[in-house]
Amino acid sequence: MAEFRVRVSTGEAFGAGTWDEMSVIIVGTEGETLPLPLDHFGKEFSAGAEEDFEVTCPQDVGRVLLLRLHKTPPALPRPFWPLASDAWFCRWVQLTPPRGAPLRFPCYQWLEDQGSLVLREGTAKISWEDRHPTLQQQRQEELQARREMYSWKTYIPGWPRCLNEETIKNLDLNIKYSLAKNITFYLRGGSMLAHLKLKGLLDRKGLWKSLEEMRSVFSFRKTPAVEYVFEHWQEDAFFAYQFLNGLNPVLIRRCRHLPKNFPVTDAMVALVLGPGTSLQAELEKGSLFLVDHGILSGIRTNVINRRPQFSAAPMTLLYQRPGCGPLLPLAIQLSQTPGPDSPIFLPSDDKWDWLLAKTWVRNAEFSIHEALTHLLQVHLVAEVFTLATLRQLPHCHPLFKSTGIGIEGFSELIQRYMEQLNYSILCLPEDIRARGVEDIPGYYYRDDGMQIWGAVECFVSEMIGIYYLSDESVRDDSELQAWVWEIFSEGFLGRESSGVPSSLGTREALIQYVTMVIFTCSAKHSAVGTGQFDFSAWMPNLPPTMQLPPPTSKGQASLEKFIATLPPVNATCDVIIALWALSKEPGDRRSLGTYPDEHFTEVAPCWSIAAFQSRLAQISRDIQERNQDLELPYTYLDPPIIENSVSI
């Protein structure tokens, strides 16, 4: 007879407790026990509870390998909840054997209805480290069950493949929003919707009466950033600033040679460049930059309120003044085909001509940001990472533990961009070098992003060093290689031209790859998602659609035509409601480096996590100190703002 003490920790979330009955089977090297009830007088497994149970094992099972938790409905109806399944969230189980130290079995999973969970002691193990047949079999069974639960499907041809589910209602609780998060999310969106409905704007299909009307409508959701946009949206310096630190800070690149289809001349830009220089001289100095939205050329557009909408594929040339002067726009062409019907707009043009041209560029920014930078790069790609992790890495694996164009136009745009998306774009240091923007001043996305990348890379390097002692150990990890292959084949559709690895052969390659995954799902998502409402609440700064075609000549614009080109009232409201909800984390925030689920039980990874948190804290202090001197603070990559994962 052997007596064990079993301590069970139940999660604190609403609904985490259960009225169901629990039992445990202890599996060891010499056999396993019968189900041992976890029961004592009174109510067990309440939310937030840690409870001790004494269980007696009639035989010696040897060294403990696994625990099997089993949940069954009580003999009597559940109080107050007779018609619903009684899910339970287990944080961990600790087993203290008759002799020896306590063993911690991390769980952090929901158990629904009548079911079982198999738990392993918390030491992370790579596949080849498991020598015992029982543990090898458990790994295989866990992955097989997850591959059956989470399968791939093609949502739209040419897109990354995704989870094969028709509705979120079918997802199990372990990958759903929490109830509290769901309620907060819908209440936030619902409050904005109700406000606009009561004002009679949500169903109003006509034009805005004036710019003043737009401003008065959305003044009730002011933030300091929204106020700044209100005040500065027409300024050339702020227009250019947004290519560096706005919602889409990933397109701007140094221009060494003007594109042949963008025939800017010295005479056009002399006023901004000033005397004693020329286009060629500035190109050679590296002080000119280009933002090209050519991928939008010929894209299908939407129909709103029975009216066809319009799109442009502009090119924008920008100039960085000597010293620390602001980045400024030099010229804008609204199509990829130069000619009499595609004039090059200049800062010296009529006020409304120039403002309308800049607004067309901002509309292109909206489309590229929402479809490619946001939806594709940090949601669809992140889903690929997540689904491959669920299917190919067991819980005990160390990497698992760390871890206006309309629908048709969006689809076409993503299909086009998938042919261009490559590994370098996803790796921030390589992307910065490839775009030639290492030294452009005031580029806070780059500055803060590189600090975050460095901290993540250092953390990942330490963790990889703990579990992979050589390049050979990386190559020999079959689960790791299956994970990388599945991301390559399902997410990047097996395109070798993407440069995305299909296998990893060295620790260095593994460190870069895991850093890329973590950065994409945390920091990059924060940089391109958190400020959506800030930059879009004042709709003329980032219009989601345009109701009139791009101008084909100068001298035709006016305030009235400008307003007529902007989205109608109801379309503006629809987008603002969505962006208001999507810009704010709906509760249950887990900042980068925060791991309340304690999957690691060894000392070394826990030290690495603490060091990572310390580095992030220092980065945060540096960012906040810098922001004190900025007219518009850049906060989107401040570590406390960054979520650990794509959570909205």
TrEMBL record:
Any Gene Ontology biological process: lipid oxidation
Domain of life: Eukaryota
Domain Lipoxygenase: 125-648
Keyword Ribosomal protein: no
Residues the record lists as binding Ca(2+) 1: G15, G17, D86, A87
GO molecular function: arachidonate 12(S)-lipoxygenase activity; iron ion binding
Family named by the database record: Belongs to the lipoxygenase family.
Protein name: Arachidonate 15-lipoxygenase type B
Phylogenetic placement of the source organism: Eukaryota, Metazoa, Chordata, Craniata, Vertebrata
Encoding gene, per UniProt annotation: ALOX15B
